[in-house]
Amino acid sequence: MTIASFKDLCMDAEDALSQARFWASVLGASPVDRGDGSARLDPASGRSSGEAIWIDPVPEPRTVKTRVHLDLRLAGASPEALLRAGATVVREPGRDPWWVLADPEGNEFCAFPPGPAASDPPGVFELVVDCRDAWAQATWWAEVTGGKARRSDEGPFAWVEGATGFPWRSWVFAEVPEPKVVKNRMHWDVDLVGSGPDALVAAGAAVLRERGGDIRWWVLADPEGNEFCAFPAGDR
User: CB of 1 within 8 A of CB of 146?
Assistant: First the structure.
């Protein structure tokens, strides 16, 4: 049973407005300066509202590899446009046929060559989350969002298809040896089906911060400790 639906992404940044300008140019989104040092990227006309990204200023710098990232498909044969926008190359294609790039604050993301079919348009096509147990994570998120968990025989990763509200092709969980040690600098928000997070907690989520005071949402963690925010239905 679906107890939550994917809502949008949030990104921490030392300079949220600069990050907003970079990612707006990469994604073809519209940056909105919220007047408090934070920003929002509204998706291009006709795109899913789930593609919105909220960028919030934080005092702490990035210190470890980014454990949540986006995979993009390029419009051309190289990432030159992304480099001109401010990205840097972390790894060239080799055994893996994609570039690993970093945004201006060092957050890694992957850029893939153009796809062979019209079903592979340029832009974001995957959200990728590092984890210790890919199948367990994919199964958990599939169950709470009404999607289906899939796994591959070709590597230690699994993914969710058809999660309620999810705007891209797949939600990928990739196994890595290192544990999560600090707060993720990118997280996702969900809309609750009900008025509170009890069903998510019963399914295995943990409450990190209760709703109230200056926030209208709950801060939760999934079974591997990935932070996410949960909103009562219809609230932002």
Answer: yes
Q: How do residues 33-79 score in pLDDT, each as one tens digit?
A: 999 999 999 998 878 888 999 999 999 999 999 999 999 999 999 99
Half-sphere exposure of 17 (CA within 13 A, CB side): 5
Write the DSSP assignment of 12-45 as a string of letters.
EESSHHHHHHHHHHHHT-EEEE-SSS-EEEEPPT
Whole-model pTM?
0.95
Q: Which two tokens stand for residue 65?
A: 């590899």
Distance between CA 229 and CA 210 in Å, rounded? 10
Residue among 71, 173, 176, 82 nearest 126 (CA): 71
Task: Name beta bridge partners: 206.
Answer: 221
- Please check whether residue 200 is in contact with residue 144, taking contact to mean a CB–CB distance below 8 angstroms: yes
Phi, psi for residue 137 in degrees, rounded to 5: -65, -45
The dihedrals phi and psi of 105, each to the nearest 5 degrees, come to: -100, 10
Q: How far is CA 171 from the centre of its chain?
A: 9
Six-digit token string for 1: 């049973």
